[in-house]
Specification:
Elements lengths: L13 H15 L11 E6 L5 H12 L3 E5 L8 E2 L12 E2 H11 L2 E5 L7 H4 L3 H9 L4 E3 L7 H15 L7 E6 L9 H12 L3 E5 L8 H14 L2 E5 L2 H5 L4 E5 L10 H8 L9 H5 L7 E3 L12 H4 L6 H21 L4
Helix pairs in contact: 1-6, 1-13, 2-13, 3-5, 6-7, 6-13, 7-8
The protein binds phosphoric acid mono(formamide)ester.
Phosphoric acid mono(formamide)ester (CP) binds next to helix 2.
Amino acid sequence: MSPRHFLACDEWPDEAVLALLARAAELKAGASPRPLSGRVLVGVFFDPSLRTRTSFEVAMSRHGGHMVVLEPGRGSWPIETRPGAVMDGAEAEHLIEAARVLGRYGDLLAVRAFPKAATWPEARADAVLRGFAAHAGVPVINLESARRHPCQGLADALTLQERLGPELRGRRFVLSWAFHPKALPTAVPVSAALAAARLGMEVVVARPEGFDLDPEDMDAIGAVAARAGGSLRVSAGLDAAVAGADAVYAKSWGALTCFGDPEREAALRAPLRGWRIDEARMAATRDGAGIFLHCLPVRRNVVVTDGVLDGPWSVVVDQAENRLWAQQALLEELLAGGGA
Ligand code: CP
């Protein structure tokens, strides 16, 4: 039987995701964590992290387990990830052996691998993440890939439930593209929209022309929204989208049509500095009391102003804390067969 991976929330049944959220809320309310003593999580970080790494290490120790962290090329061998590669370059170890060996040491693997491919059709295959899942022989958790950041999505959903819930149908969630000096992956915005869709919210993706999300991912968000009694639409007008909104989630992402061509992409985004969430935009939300979300790290006064981040709207630190509770619920599910 193949291991039960957690690579994308939309690859799990809706009820299973909702059960994780319920267990995360129980843990946050003081329920005893199920013991995971002697269990080991191996995290492989091809890219940097503050929240994901720390929250998983803390989560494992809260349950009496342990996490080992590897950063390939920094204290462990650089890893070749291309299938069939002739390995006469800098990489001494192939993903296939790395995954097989780490799967013998750990009860669970977790992998962060941002897109490195030259084209979007290549990057969207999430080959590094799925390569680990294919070869590890134990469950693999996605810590953010090109396509999904499901642990962030769980924390986003938990935050929406606790701030706006319990009934979220009919409430408007705006995913707002934001200016950023670099082209970023679409994993967080897609996962955030999936989270709001799963709660039955009216999801609006506000983005400038040229910054559409992957059509297959939009279909996935739309399908989840339809099952949950919500909706999905796209808007090119940020001000109209946030007016009356219940939640505004700012996130930049790169134009997929320019993927692998940073100069052309930068030229497309250069005139778009106005796509920033400020106090006036948050004041225009429902009763001036909409919540502001961001996965962090965030560039102050580029993506969002100081006044919003330090004002009454921001729930970004709660979101980051909720990574911990959601991941504790996930670890229980994968290692101990669910909550008590
Ligand atoms: N939100 C998030 O994944 O943060 P890190 O990149 O710091 O892990």
